[in-house]
Automatic annotation (TrEMBL):
KW Glycoprotein (keyword) present: no
Protein name, UniProt field: Methylmalonyl-CoA decarboxylase
Parts forming coiled coils: none
Keyword Oxidoreductase: no
Family under the similarity heading: Belongs to the enoyl-CoA hydratase/isomerase family.
Keywords: Lyase
One Pfam short name: ECH_1
Organism: Pseudomonas fungipugnans
SUPFAM superfamilies: ClpP/crotonase
Listed PROSITE patterns: ENOYL_COA_HYDRATASE
Length: 264
């Protein structure tokens, strides 16, 4: 871990079958910096090696922001921070391939890549302060096909479009209605609800649970796309990532002003 960074990732064990994986970046609204993501990835690898059947992932309960998503400061040097080999995508794949159940524990708002982090978990337990906002359009960043598919498989198409076109929040009540949240509870019962669910899962046959999870992951990924369509998507994303609008979006965010996009 970078000693100059405020970001931390810690692991606590409720028992030998349940790990609480807590990430924190308090000086930057729990932003997902590259170092924090690398530490999350390392922790997930270690827990998988220990065959821990259930992981509860989240920040400390009661904060206004669960995570602000990508650390915008780092985007100044990266024209496509959500490409396949980048830290966030690595962690999302690690969660989806984890040989056990990963539960997202959400209190507060999730933004951008943090929403994708939650959506990549197997289950979501949240309190009434939770909300989900997909904000890449605010800075001119096009989302990936794989990321859109994670939403496509979980929310109605018109809700998906609303989230990505407007960048407005999906509040906890609507998120529960559309199945994004499995359990919506009061803040003071959030931890206990997650632990109760985790204990119930951990008591089941771990190989059977892991097998079902992997089957569902494979079935979700069975989305045949013609080569020509993939090439078209790649070109559209390349144009957006290299556009003046993307630079304007980043500059506007840093200067705390409204971006002026010109479509070029």
């Amino acid at each position: 871990m970078n000693p100059t960074s405020s970001a931390t990732v810690t692991v606590h064990f409720a028992d030998e079958r349940i790990a609480r994986l807590v990430f924190s970046n308090p000086s930057h609204r729990n932003a997902l910096s590259a170092q924090l993501l690398a530490d999350l990835d390392e922790s997930l690898v270690a827990l998988a090696a220990q065959r821990v059947p259930v992981v509860i992932l989240g920040t400390q309960v009661g904060q206004p922001v669960w995570s602000a998503g990508h650390d915008i400061r780092e985007l100044q040097h990266d024209r496509d921070p959500i490409a396949y080999g980048k830290p966030l995508e690595q962690v999302l794949r690690r969660i989806r391939a984890y040989p056990g159940v990963v539960i997202a524990l959400i209190s507060g708002s999730a933004w951008g890549g943090a929403v994708d982090l939650a959506m990549s978990c197997d289950l979501v337990i949240a309190d009434h302060s939770a909300s989900f906002a997909m904000t890449p359009v605010n800075i001119g960043l096009p989302y990936t096909t794989s990321g859109l598919l994670r939403f496509f498989n979980n929310v109605p198409i018109h809700v998906l479009k609303e989230m990505f076109f407007t960048a407005q929040k999906l509040d906890a009540q609507r998120a529960e209605r559309f199945g994004v949240i499995n359990r919506l509870v009061d803040t003071d019962t959030l931890e206990d609800t997650a632990l109760e669910m985790a204990r119930g899962i951990a008591a089941k046959a771990p190989l059977a649970v892991a097998a079902v999870k992997e089957q569902l992951r494979i079935l979700e990924d069975m989305q045949p796309v013609p080569v020509q369509a993939m090439e078209q998507i790649a070109e559209l994303r390349r144009q957006a990532c290299q556009s003046s609008d993307f630079g304007e979006g980043l500059a506007a965010f840093a200067e705390r002003r409204v971006a002026v996009f010109e479509g070029r």
